[in-house]
Amino acid sequence: MRAPNGVQPFSHRCRVYYEDTDAGGIVYYVNYLKFMERARTERLRELGYAQSTLAGEGLLFVVHSAEARYHAPARLDDELLISADVIELNRASLRFRQQVRRATDDALLCEGQFLVACVRADNLKPRAIPETLRHAFAGTQART
């Protein structure tokens, strides 16, 4: 099922720290994946779901596959805006489209897509995304 167009876009702000960069002050490529992971976690939090609470309920989200394209470098002290938009919502998985942009000029630095699977915490086998969470991602009300 495709995510509806009416869902509000989400963006997470973060700053590039020294630990995120290489010797030249440029963000090391793998750190963009970390920034995008944080944005997905904050997206869940914004919807009212903490990863720690979900794990306590026996539910985990794991990255099944990742794709990233790099366009321009982020540098030490840049402020970044990282989007985390669900573009596909399936029974046991979500596909996110994400972008990392520099806040000062909105330059696209990196973009990617991530297939995230919902699994049982005890055995890591796929499980259905709970209906309330599916509705939160879809921007609709759950049936009561």
The number of distinct structural domains comes to: 1
Cα-based radius of gyration, to the nearest Å: 16 Å
CATH C-level name:
Alpha Beta
**How would the global form be characterised?**
elongated
Per CATH, the superfamily is Hotdog Thioesterase
Mean pLDDT: 92
**Amount of beta strand:** 25-35%
**Helical region count?**
3
Number of strand elements: 6
CATH topology: Thiol Ester Dehydrase, Chain A
For the record, give the distance between the C-alpha atoms at the N and C termini, rounded to a whole number: 21 Å
Q: How many strands, which pairing sense, and closed or not: the largest β-sheet?
A: 6 strands, antiparallel
CATH A-level architecture: Roll
Low-confidence stretches: 1-5
Q: Name the helix and strand elements from N-terminus to C-terminus, one letter apiece.
A: EHHEEEEEH
> What quaternary form is this?
single chain
Structural class comes to alpha+beta
Helix content: 10-25%
Plain-language structure description:
Strands 1, 2, 3, 4, 5 and 6 form a six-stranded antiparallel beta sheet that branches. This protein starts with 10 loop residues before the first strand and ends in a 6-residue tail after the last helix. Strand 5 and strand 6 (108-120) form a beta hairpin. The relative contact order is 0.24. It contains three helices and six strands; from the N terminus they run βααβββββα. By secondary structure, the chain is α+β, with helices and mostly antiparallel strands. The chain has one domain: Thiol Ester Dehydrase, Chain A (Roll). It has helices at residues 30-46, 51-56, 131-138, and strands at 11-15, 59-70, 79-83, 85-89, 93-102, 108-120.
